[in-house]
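Design a sequence for this backbone.
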């Protein structure tokens, strides 16, 4: 583990202007916060963030990135907060730490959802600042180096699979091949332990049998190039074990059938020397046709530049040779990190990360965890082809891409409007697969939309995500239109006309986001008619007896708890109705007063006897009082009385008690069956555009 002074000295070697005190404070802070926490290896937990910071110094990254590496686990695993980080180390570091920190709730999700949510958060944070990606990749690399200390095989395999599927490809996409290769090797060891043991064993066997053959070939290449006046460095190695395994799996061949196990790297001074060296090697040894690739004139999307060729050495031995400049080599091994621009005034890397915008679009468009993982893997993986717009703009696409994939690569709106394509000047179907160097012109129309059938032939994650989003949006519009018609039919069953405010209130009661979501929920039958009615007008679905069954009030009311024949009356201060919780007040020479349990005037009856009373079993019918605030405009009172009539409530008294433009306040006494009946009426009144306020008094 790096000591404090060693870490600081590393940073000051390449960034003498760095804030030494701030770096020391961050080191001490992470040691103090993680305290006695231990890793699975038994090492102190703070050794992990310190080692991650060490990896960042190897890439010569700025001090904010080093401090972020030191603090990246403090918020997740200690009592520290983002606010604490911001106060001590500034908003830039706090933002970076927040981007790297994994939310603890993600760990409780099912595997695919967890991976998807982790990836979603990661990509969104990465889009704001790519230093988040660099720290996260270093974090994952160090975790993979210590993965073997975890006792649970399932957990080791899960972490290895996530590394292989997400983090290694991301490292490749930003050109960090050193990180990618080591991640793949460590993950391969966990996921395919038998294959790993066999291949590494065979490579060691070849190394022992052939002795210094790799060195001998490297010397021969160096000598051939040096004789032509080139200043070169040549290094040879066996191919990466995981690369060999993947080739065996894809081609269905055995280890013995892999002929180009040896690979050599040639470093020269200039791009011109790369091509000179290539010509010399092709003159010295036989080239294998179809194996030459020029990534200098046409770099990979991550900025990778090199010439690749395959040659036949003595005894028909095949070997792969990569030729590049020394600057290219550093960029190829460490990608964006090799030429990070933050320490030179805060500028950001350029078009090398254009693919990141596609990933963010995929995050926005993906419907669920499965889609997000599928589309993102499509965007990260796959070999590339190069196609051009008529104006010469270059777009890199996976092999097998079609004109539709190309259209979406240019712009999502162009893909959505595509109706045809001209490829190299010829009109071709949209499903036509593109070849390297094709010039593609997309023909568009303003009256078209993506077709579901396109999903049968597109290959890019961006295209699939955009098509699915467009198709879902169209389906949503159609379902919402059905829902709007159904809502009109449901509303017609309620007393009175339903206003805009009632719909807005219903959206809130149902926990939905907007009116469109309500229409979709109705149209897709996620909500029943009864649920919608109750949300628009609470109490409106209460069951009412047939009109013929309504008993007359004077015969229907009975009160339990009173001596037979004892007189009573319902208090006019609170107007109790059947189903209200009630209490009786008894005073000398007075009938028993029946009040609701929450009546405010009960306090004045402290000198009276309180009786525990309740409604009789078949009691129905009583007078309830409402206070209504109506808009003072023609027709409002008629609309309110229509609600009473349609609710089958008899108006006993209606009186205006206050007039305050533009409102009028009324008190209404209604003969109702019970509390449910009264509640239903109040709900219908509140849903009406004529009523500003309705409440029981």
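Sequence:
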């Amino acid at each position: 583990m790096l000591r404090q002074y060693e870490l600081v000295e590393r940073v000051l070697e390449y960034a003498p202007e760095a804030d030494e005190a701030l770096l020391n404070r961050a080191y001490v802070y992470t040691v103090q916060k993680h305290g006695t926490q231990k890793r699975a290896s038994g090492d102190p937990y703070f050794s992990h963030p310190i080692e991650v910071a060490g990896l960042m110094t190897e890439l010569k990254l700025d001090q904010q990135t080093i401090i972020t590496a030191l603090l990246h686990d403090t918020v997740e695993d200690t009592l520290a907060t983002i606010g604490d980080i911001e106060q001590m180390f500034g908003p830039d570091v706090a933002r970076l730490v927040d981007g790297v920190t994994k939310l603890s709730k993600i760990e409780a999700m099912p595997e695919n959802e967890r991976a998807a949510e982790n990836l979603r958060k990661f990509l969104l944070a990465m889009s704001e600042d790519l230093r988040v990606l660099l720290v996260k990749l270093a974090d994952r690399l160090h975790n993979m180096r210590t993965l073997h200390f975890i006792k649970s095989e399932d957990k080791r395999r899960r972490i290895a699979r996530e590394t292989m599927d997400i983090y290694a490809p991301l490292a490749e996409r930003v050109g960090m091949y050193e990180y990618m290769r080591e991640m793949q090797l460590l993950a391969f060891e966990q996921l395919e332990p038998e294959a790993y043991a066999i291949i590494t064993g065979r490579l060691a066997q070849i190394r022992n049998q052939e002795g210094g053959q790799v060195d001998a070939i490297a010397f021969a290449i160096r000598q051939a190039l040096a004789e032509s006046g080139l200043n070169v460095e040549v290094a040879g190695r066996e191919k990466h074990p995981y690369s060999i395994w993947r080739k065996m799996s894809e081609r269905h061949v055995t280890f013995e059938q892999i002929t180009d196990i040896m690979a050599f790297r040639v470093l020269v001074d200039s791009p011109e020397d790369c091509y000179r060296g290539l010509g010399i090697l092709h003159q010295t040894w036989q080239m294998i046709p179809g194996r030459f690739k020029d990534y200098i004139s046409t770099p990979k999307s991550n900025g990778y530049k090199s010439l690749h060729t395959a040659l036949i050495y003595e005894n028909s031995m095949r070997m792969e040779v990569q030729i590049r400049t020394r600057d290219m080599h550093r960029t190829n091994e460490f990608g964006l990190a090799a030429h990070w621009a933050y320490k030179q005034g805060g500028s950001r890397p350029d078009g090398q990360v254009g693919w990141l915008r596609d990933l963010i679009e995929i995050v926005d468009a993906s419907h669920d965890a499965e889609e997000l993982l599928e589309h993102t893997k499509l965007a990260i993986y796959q070999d590339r082809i190069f196609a051009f717009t008529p104006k010469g703009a270059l777009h890199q696409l996976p092999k097998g891409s079609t004109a539709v994939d190309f259209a979406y690569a240019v712009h999502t709106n162009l893909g959505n409007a595509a109706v045809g394509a001209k490829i190299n000047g010829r009109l071709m179907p949209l499903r036509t697969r593109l070849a390297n160097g094709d010039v593609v012109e997309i023909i568009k129309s303003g009256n078209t939309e993506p077709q579901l059938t396109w999903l049968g032939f597109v290959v890019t994650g961006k295209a699939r995500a955009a098509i699915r989003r467009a198709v879902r949006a169209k389906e949503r519009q159609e379902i919402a239109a059905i829902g709007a018609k159904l809502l009109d039919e449901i509303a017609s069953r309620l007393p009175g006309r339903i206003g805009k405010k009632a719909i807005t209130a219903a959206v809130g009661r149902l926990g939905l986001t907007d009116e469109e979501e309500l229409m979709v929920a109705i149209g897709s039958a996620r909500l029943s008619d009864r649920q919608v009615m109750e949300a628009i007008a609470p109490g409106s679905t209460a069951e009412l007896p047939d009109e013929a069954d309504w008993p007359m009030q004077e015969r229907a009311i009975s009160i339990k708890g009173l001596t037979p024949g004892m007189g009573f009356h319902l208090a006019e201060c609170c107007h109790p109705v059947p189903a209200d919780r009630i209490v009786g007040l008894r005073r000398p020479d007075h009938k028993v007063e029946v009040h609701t349990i929450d009546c405010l005037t009960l306090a004045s009856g402290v000198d009276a006897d309180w009786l525990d009373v309740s409604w009789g079993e078949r009691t129905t019918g009583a007078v309830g009082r409402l206070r209504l605030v109506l808009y003072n405009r023609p027709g409002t009172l008629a609309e309110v009385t229509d609600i009473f009539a349609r609710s089958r409530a008899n108006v006993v008294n209606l009186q205006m008690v206050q007039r305050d433009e533009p409102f009028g306040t009324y008190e209404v006494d209604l003969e109702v069956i019970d509390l449910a009946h009264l509640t239903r009426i109040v709900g219908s009144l509140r849903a009406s555009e004529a009523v500003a306020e309705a409440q029981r008094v």
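The chain has 27 helices and 21 strands.
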